[in-house]
């Protein structure tokens, strides 16, 4: 920034004062040095172009302008005289100003115009005498806006110096304060007289002095401003405050550093917040690393070591240790140690419960925490703690559900926060759980190793027993036992033999064998008893044969037999069942001797015992299965007899019912038929007679007109014209009624078919129509019941050979049930009612079978009901409405009498569909 005239005058006065003080005696040298530093600091803050010249105009020092118009000035170089770097006329004026300033020792101002890039700029140059041989030149652009900007910067700078938290300071090259802004006192408490002329070192924390020294050395060497540094400064009250500072170097004409000018700012609050955040992150990282150690598949020792190393790493502990409690001796044994001590021997390798601070923690089951090791009564070796700089101690019992497993403890050279103590407590509990888990796993592994041999035996026995129980098939039992033993003992051959003693020559027969080399060493399927006399005798006597090495046998016949089949070791165990059967379980080796161990023999003995039991169970199972099969056959016979009895009962009831119904229908039809035939036969004659009479009356009207008064009155009274027209209509109605009665009688006769017996050619459609005619009254609408619509989809069917009356009964049962279902649905679902329908379809399928389908859109039925639909006496209707006989009889008529099929397809809410399929048979005639 540039200075105003008043400010320039102030600078001039300062320079004169410095010149005067320089000429005085030595005691004023320190004051002069401070003034010079102030001058240099002010000159560095002036944004005008600054030059220091000698008497000949040679440039001794130069600082370019920092304003936005600096590019409007000519480039100043140090190797040419000042006046020669301008146009000639301006250069001469500048040289004259230099001479006048040196002569008068008074400020000289000149103004000149400079054309740059076709633009004319006006500048003001101020010459100030620094001594008799040196002057200072300040050049600024003479522009109002620039002036305003510079003034603003000046006032801003002044405000910063007086009111901000920034401290402006100037240091000598030896590190003494040459200048400090007045707010030092407010920020750090020291009076300026306590600062000026003193080294910066006493004010900076000892740990940060080297940092500051290195920073100033870098600035000194490079000569440029560096990135800010952070360090601690001591307040007058003894408190350490964090500051951040940056500084630059002030140089003379010979490029030598005269001073360091810097600015510092208090960042204590930010540092405190950063410390809190860093501490939280540190604790989070610590917790995460401990959790990782506890969850990874590590050994107990690795897990504990990882946890103590995490304490040292993340909590900056001097060292951390874990002891595990030896419950038998009631002693804590050191397991791991991390940090400055990594050994696990020494005085604290074994600590009795209740001894030292570690033993007391285990005894009391309470943590011991302190941030004052030197005054803690439980810290026994305070001299060691003082020597090592120990400040804090934290020890926690490792407990799970009240059980003390050990102790974890740490020493630190710095105080521990409450949050650190809390997180250590949580981690101690988690470590205890991890130790308990690892100890449990180790105990399980030890138990597993100890009882593995027993477990293998039990596993084999259990597996065999399980497979035996699952099958109870003799062959499967034997095969399973042979395979399991062969695989478990890793032998070359394993076989099971039966002793066949009920033959002419007793033999040993191989039932099942597993071997590794079937193509090389095969045994015969049967061996005579005499060929293996020694082996046979011992097996029959329930003795175990145990040969580790065939070459050591004394029985030459047995040795020869085993050699012939390349057996080098042999083991045989007898199997005697309660039913008297005898067998043998053999294990063989074909490559060198094979010592049979006691536990192997014991296991095989257990297997043979299980095998004997299993064989007896299999025998019993076979016998019980035969008995059960016999009982099942008898039960099936009884069930068939019961079913036949039920069907016979149903047929008897049906036959009696149909016989009575047929006789009743036939009788009614016969009684109705006679008078109806009389009416129907005479109605035509009556129609002709009435017509003749009416014709005669008409002739009388035409030939005797006008009629006498008595006839005319009677004619009017009876309304002869109306009577003439309506009489014929009455006769026609009587004829239609008689015809309707005659058709109904015919339908009843067709339905009953009492006049027909056996299988005859029948029109199926006629039977269906007759049934519908009889049920016509149920199909009509009634109060609360919607009319049922009948949809006929008849195919082109030939006449079918069948029992007409029985088929009509099937149609009656199926249609009546459909009507019942639709009526119930109509009553129950008045609001969501769909028009009730019964669809009747007939067709001839590809197999020359007649298919009759009767389907309704009623409520349908469940699968459970559908499966029992054709059972005798099964009904879903209320008492008094259904007998459960109709569908059963219909099923027997279709399946038994016509060799057809009767099926039902139905799901709830989708209606029901009955499909009748009967063969299309030709007449026997």
What does this structure look like?
- Helix 1 packs antiparallel against helix 2, helix 7 runs antiparallel to helix 8 (300-315) and helix 8 runs antiparallel to helix 11 (418-471).
- A hairpin with a 4-residue loop joins strand 1 (49-54) and strand 2 (59-63).
- This protein starts with a helix and ends in a 6-residue tail after the last strand.
- The radius of gyration is 64 Å and the shape is flat.
- Strands 13-12-11-16-15-14 form a 6-stranded antiparallel beta sheet, sandwiched between helices. The chain has a 6-stranded antiparallel beta sheet with strand order 19-18-17-22-21-20, with helices on both faces. A 5-stranded antiparallel beta sheet has the order 2-1-5-4-3, with helices on both faces.
- The protein is 48% helix and 22% strand.
- Mean pLDDT is 80; it is low at 68-72 and 144-150.
- It is built from 22 helices and 29 strands.
- The longest helix has 106 residues, at 598-703.
- It has 925 residues and is α+β, with helices and mostly antiparallel strands.
At a glance:
The protein has 925 residues and is of the alpha+beta class. 48% of the residues lie in helices and 22% in strands.
Question: SSE layout and pairings?
Answer:
Elements: H1 5-22, H2 29-45, E1 49-54, E2 59-63, H3 88-104, E3 108-116, E4 119-129, E5 134-141, H4 144-163, E6 167-172, E7 177-180, H5 184-188, H6 206-222, E8 229-234, E9 240-251, E10 257-266, H7 268-295, H8 300-315, E11 317-326, E12 331-339, E13 350-352, H9 356-364, E14 368-370, H10 382-388, E15 392-400, E16 403-412, H11 418-471, H12 474-489, E17 493-500, E18 507-515, E19 526-528, H13 533-540, E20 545-547, H14 556-564, E21 569-576, E22 582-589, H15 598-703, H16 709-718, H17 720-752, E23 760-762, H18 764-774, H19 776-779, E24 789-793, E25 800-802, H20 804-828, E26 837-844, E27 849-856, H21 863-867, H22 886-897, E28 901-906, E29 912-919
Parallel strand pairs: 24-26
Antiparallel strand pairs: 1-2, 1-5, 3-4, 4-5, 6-7, 6-10, 8-9, 9-10, 11-12, 11-16, 12-13, 14-15, 15-16, 17-18, 17-22, 18-19, 20-21, 21-22, 23-25, 26-27, 27-29, 28-29
Helix pairs in contact: 1-2, 7-8, 7-11, 8-11, 11-12, 11-15, 12-15, 15-17, 17-18, 18-20, 20-22
